[in-house]
TrEMBL record:
One of its GO terms (molecular function) is oxidoreductase activity. This is Protein-methionine-sulfoxide reductase catalytic subunit MsrP. InterPro entries: MsrP, OxRdtase_Mopterin-bd_dom, OxRdtase_Mopterin-bd_sf, TAT_signal. Residues 92-249 form the Oxidoreductase molybdopterin-binding domain.
Amino acid sequence: MLISHAPLIRPSEITPRGVYLNRRSLMLGAAAAGLSAAMAPRGAEAAQLEASPSPLSTDEEPTALEHITNYNNYYEFGTGKEDPAKNAHTLTTEPWTVKVDGLVSRPAEFDLDDLLKPVTLEERIYRLRCVEGWSMVIPWVGFPLSEVLNRVEPLGSAKFLAFETVVRPDEMPGLRAFFNVLDWPYVEGLRLDEAMHPLAILAVGLYGETLPNQNGAPIRLVVPWKYGFKSIKSIVRITLTEGQPPTSWNKQNPREYGFYSNVNPEVDHPRWSQATELPIGQGLFAKRKPTLMFNGYGDEVAQLYAGMDLTKFY
Ligand SMILES: Nc1nc2c(c(=O)[nH]1)N[C@H]1C(S)=C(S)[C@@H](COP(=O)(O)O)O[C@H]1N2
Ligand SMILES: [Mo]
């Protein structure tokens, strides 16, 4: 199961010893709490991932593993925050392929191992912030999305990426539900220049172990300056397109969810303010924190939106 190995921890110049010890005790704490077998990835035990720390990380304290893996959104496994941890063990994540097609010179169907071969995995500690007003700090293990794009060579006409989650009604109870909030497959999109930005990653692990199923195993997107729903899980296809692709939450409610969905405390969700967020896992008396423009990554990404009215392109 997930906590069967000691976590991969390498002392390094940019990981202060306090964080090192703290993470270790978080991992041991999670093991002691007897995390259920249901939250372990299916099949083989979670493998450790050799990842070097990335300077693109935040220096914030990561949220405890227990919260990262028990408070999820993954509607294919139910709409409750605890449903994915209960149900996602039924997803088979091996073998797994990701098809990359559309406006590229070298379309390919990559086996997951093949996808990982040329890349160096990095640990990147990124905030994830949901439109519902909660946030987490997650030590992802992943690699830049741009590395895959460079392998398939986008054509000059390619302007957007369309992402698709796997559809397996047999393994995904949410897809068998009588009433569905969303259409399947779950789909998301990015502009090509957003996708090429070094902060946009494909994650294959967290806390030095392969991704738990509820967090989007075996491979999911992480776009830290956008609301959580852009970070699509269990990806099987990426298509390069000329026009802006449809996205699941925008189709469901276009007034509430736009294509861009950059974290923006100044633009309220029609039903609530987006000015503050509640960090998960800090106890009953945790204080809401002010939400930062672009989730705090403004220095890196603001130039992608120069000249755009972000109240219109929300
Ligand atoms: N396929 C798929 N991807 C998804 C979702 C989903 O329901 N299905 N939920 C999104 C939402 S709303 C959020 S906030 C994040 C949550 O990621 P986490 O569970 O790893 O914290 O996943 C996103 N990716
Ligand atoms: Mo979300």
